[in-house]
Amino acid sequence: MDMISDFDLTGSNTMGLKSFARRAVIVDDPTILPALARESAASGLPLYFLGGGSNVVLRERLEAIVALMRIGGRKVARQTDTHSIVTAGAGENWHDFVAWTIAEDMPGLENLAGIPGTVGAAPIQNIGAYGAQLSDFFLSLEAYDLQGGVVRTFDAQDCRFGYRQSHFKTEPGRHVILSVTLALPRAWRPKRDYAGLDQLPEQISAREVLDHVVALRASKLPDWRVLGNAGSFFHNPVVSAEKAAEIAGAPRYPQPDGTMKLSAGWLIEQCGLKGFRLGPAGTYDRHALVLVNHGGATRTDIAALAAHIREKVRDRFDVELVQEPIEL
Ligand code: EPU
């Protein structure tokens, strides 16, 4: 096992936060995982897995073994009468995988195009965009249980998916996702019932929807290669219908259980914090929910900005914002 000491993770997280790992290792084969777990126990260093690093806030110094997940591979596992069943390795780039399914004439994932990160990270926060989420297509995944030392298969029920939520967030670090299997229905219609897609013609190909989604994202969200960011930094808060009615003018989205989802971006903008800067950290000037690194920011800078935003939103609206990216 090739361990690298004092590994610079600045280029391995999309926020571009300055961060070093005490030790790092590339995982491109699941058979090294038992030895890696033993190494973690023997050294007393916790083991953290990183995919695309697109939903994490990294400390400046990680006293840990950071495993960079690179297990690749994608295939059509089988065709049923109704679905194409596709499997991809955890280290595959999510957008490339989506583009491949569409090039192979298996539409369905186009609304989820352009989301940064890896296939293996997708179930952890049940990625979603433009009216679709991973759980709509999810069939199963394989994960290595670091405690039990066995590979386990999880079906959708085991994963307990919710809005940006899954079982894997409640037991962080225990399971290493190795591969994900999705079921893409053969009967396909474009999903256009979402702001920004509702003007698309009914006769449109999945490839055209994909291109439109990518362009839409580019018009709203900064490219992390240019301006470090981790997408939405807070969940959209879900509040009671009464509470939502108190906030005049707020966009609100009714939930099946009678509660209302509000837009965190709107709440932050109302506090005058769109395009706001605090040191090298700031909110994006075209979308207040995205925290950006203007250059050289650390976790401390991001934490100070996030605390400021939460306080302003709490004072003005009495709404508690919950951070989306995971702290490592
Ligand atoms: N808004 C503002 N000001 C802002 C930003 C947004 O008023 O600065 C308003 C918009 O005008 C709109 C509403 O807030 O009325 C919602 O904004 P948007 O459509 O941009 O979506 P969002 O709720 O901010 C969510 C996801 C995104 C996903 C988009 C599109 C969450 C936390 N975020 O953002 O996911 O791409 O919808 O489906 O659910 C991510 O999770 O990292 C992510 C980027």
Would you mind describing this structure in some detail?
By secondary structure, this protein is an alpha+beta fold. It has three domains: 66 residues, Uridine Diphospho-n-acetylenolpyruvylglucosamine Reductase, domain 2, CATH 3.30.43.10; 143 residues, Uridine Diphospho-n-acetylenolpyruvylglucosamine Reductase, domain 3 (2-Layer Sandwich), CATH 3.30.465.10; 106 residues, UDP-N-acetylenolpyruvoylglucosamine reductase, C-terminal domain (Uridine Diphospho-n-acetylenolpyruvylglucosamine Reductase, domain 1, Alpha-Beta Complex). It is 23% helix and 30% strand. A five-stranded antiparallel β-sheet has the order 6-7-12-10-11. Strands 1-2-5-3 form a four-stranded mixed β-sheet, covered by helices on one side. Strands 13-19-18-17 form a four-stranded antiparallel β-sheet. Strand 17 and strand 18 form a beta hairpin. It is globular, with a radius of gyration of 20 Å. It starts with a strand and ends with a strand. The site of uridine-diphosphate-2(N-acetylglucosaminyl) butyric acid has 19 residues, from strand 13, helix 7 and strand 19.
